[in-house]
């Protein structure tokens, strides 16, 4: 049985990073970046989103509010250990990083990645399923490179969670949320993403109030660019962002 336990990497530079994964996946998705940042002294917590890292049936009852509440909890836990916390998230985790930054101005930096303000048509998340569909199957199968080891996700997915993602997207787009984000922000968005509409990055950049904000827009890497063949180039860019003064 595949496991997706939450992970914690203690560092020694006095700074901490909370990493939040994407929908239907788990903390393992963030491990390569976590280890990279930890090697450079950062304390890193890879948290599971609400309803994730347990059993597929939990997604039948997980709401957008649950996703927010769990992210709030994980942030609070890390704040007990460090007064300097940055947040990075991919996809749904990116949305949650924006929400946390809007509600907690003390957050040092955020780097939301592949964050869907809009969804691309035709993905398994955005497509319409026949009325009455409760589950879809997405076998782990044979995956290349880092995907094989770290992209561990539910193979049986409750389709109702896709509606909760859309609700979370609407919460982020509601008046007063993005405009409340004022910490330094790095928006990461691969231009060949087939899940999160790449123009989402422009929307986020235009609507947040951060005085220090920029985008990193590689041509390739896909939705899960944090596990792509060029991920270590991306990690280095994130590290440089975290070290900015």
What is shown here, in short?
The protein is of the alpha/beta class and 245 residues long. The chain contains seven helices and nine strands; from the N terminus they run ββαβαβαββαβαβαβα. It is globular and about 50 Å long.
Describe this structure in words.
- The chain has 245 residues and is of the alpha/beta class.
- It has one domain: Rossmann fold (3-Layer(aba) Sandwich), CATH 3.40.50.1820.
- Helices cover 32% and strands 15% of the residues.
- The protein is built from seven helices and nine strands; from the N terminus they run ββαβαβαββαβαβαβα.
- It has helices at residues 31-39, 64-79, 92-103, 145-150, 160-173, 200-207, 231-243, and strands at residues 7-9, 16-20, 43-47, 85-90, 110-113, 135-137, 156-158, 185-188, 213-216.
- It has a seven-stranded mixed sheet with strand order 1-3-2-4-5-8-9, with helices on both faces. A two-stranded antiparallel sheet has the order 6-7.
- Strand 8, helix 6 and strand 9 (213-216) form a beta-alpha-beta unit.
- The termini are far apart.
- The model has no long low-confidence stretch (mean pLDDT 95).
Key phrases:
245 residues; alpha/beta; Rossmann fold; seven-stranded mixed β-sheet; two-stranded antiparallel sheet; 7 helices; 32% helix; globular
Write the layout of secondary structure elements.
Layout: E1 7-9, E2 16-20, H1 31-39, E3 43-47, H2 64-79, E4 85-90, H3 92-103, E5 110-113, E6 135-137, H4 145-150, E7 156-158, H5 160-173, E8 185-188, H6 200-207, E9 213-216, H7 231-243
Parallel strand pairs: 2-3, 2-4, 4-5, 5-8, 8-9
Antiparallel strand pairs: 1-3, 6-7
